[in-house]
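Input:
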Amino acid sequence: MLLKIQTDEALDSYISRNRLFLKDKFEVEDPFKSLQGDEWSIKDLILVADLMSWHHFAGFIKLVQQHTVYFSYRLIVDDVESMLLRHRFLEKSNCDFGYVTKGKNVAICLECVKDDIERVGFSFWRRSHQNEINVCATHNVKLLKKCQFCDRAFRVENHCLNVLWSGCKCGRYILESETEINECSLEFKRSKLNAAILNFDRKLDCVIAYESFLIALNCNERYKELWNEVTDSRFDRVLFPWTKSDLHYEIKTYLSFGPEHLRVCCYIVATLIFLLFADFEEFIRSFKYILEKKSLQFESMTEKRASLVS
Ligand SMILES: [Zn+2]
Ligand SMILES: [Zn+2]
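Output:
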């Protein structure tokens, strides 16, 4: 009998918790033994979903939707079918199903840890804290990415995720760390947007999304203000580390290719929402407004991926 996965718990965290806390109960062998290494295939995830009694295709999608960061950059891009087609023949596909890879620090919010312990008696690693996110969207504090006592980064090769439960190699525990308040509104906005996108369970129509970007870009003074704020504080590289050259230029270029191109450049979509709208909800309102003007239904121009009901 496996442990119960928690809301927003990263799949990697769940597997590590099971391995650590049930190791004496795994009498025959580790049920997750196929999940070694940095990349997981669809086959691996279907197996995990099955072990969790989330059967069939719907169970697999629920696992991807609720416990990985896969869809965070695929708001427009991917429906389930195209994802499967793309990865169908890959044994180990590099498609962001996990978040822990070599060379990537994992992050945690000290206040979330305290809340979780009070609420359920233990804590876990959240998917909404990973993926270059620096601030907790709930507590607006800086995420911890290394041990405050010995400076060892929270990485697979240093601690594994067990540092949260078993302590650091230096003998200290995450709970002994000091919380640092975040002062940067841009980081906080980015974290909240990331969390909202992760919790959104529909795929958006690219033409309508494109139209809402263009309208906001053409008549929205906020873009200029925010743009200046981002560049003045040299924040474009920090907020959008994937940019190759000049972000402003890249955005204009991508948009000039038309709506279909939004499917190809996943990162631009979240960036545009960040720069053009106050928050994710405002973007969705604008999306719905355009649909209303065209007498189109929200349900027919978006696609639900999986039920979010646990
Ligand atoms: Zn938090
Ligand atoms: Zn340490």
